[in-house]
Amino acid sequence: MIENVLKAKPMRERFLPFHIPCIGDEEISSVVEVLRGGWLTTGPRVHAFEDAFANYTGARYAIAVNSCTAALHLALDAIGLREDDEVLIRQKVLGFLPPQPDCLHLLARLRHGHLVQ
Judging by DSSP bridges, how do beta strands 109-112 and 86-89 pair with one another? Predict the structure, then answer.
């Protein structure tokens, strides 16, 4: 099967990027400023971003996290998900389902799509 994939003619001659970032001198300067400032995690820029995001969305608080997985874990904890609670999820969420969904970290029971284990 892999041999057929390797022999297949590409659908396009030129690469079609998923996203072309728009990074200018202002963004590059901001990154360099943060790196030289010694804060790579929860420094003043992160707090400023959280405040600006909360203000923009009208929320009382906002918390920056490093991944969607971390955000889902916080969201499930925030709604009070506890051991033996049941969580229903779609078969696929945006085409991706992590190998250990966040509800398992909280020891909740997972109902995956129409299959129950």
Answer: parallel
Residue 115 is predicted with a pLDDT of: 40
CB-based contact 72:79 (threshold 8 Å)? no
Which residue in the block uniquely carries the two structure tokens 């033996």? Answer: 84
Place of tokens 């969607």: 68
Q: Is the dihedral of CA 6, 92, 76, 83 positive or negative?
A: negative
At 116, is the pLDDT very low, low, confident or very high (cuts 50, 70, 90)? very low
- For residue 115, what is the enclosing H or E element? strand 115-116
* Most distant pair of Cα atoms in the chain: their distance: 56
Instruction: Report the phi/psi class of residue 38: left, alpha or beta, with left for phi > 0 and alpha for psi in -120 to 50.
Output: left
Model pTM score? 0.57
More confident call, 6 vs 55: 55
Residue partners of 22: CB distance under 8 A and separation at least 6: none
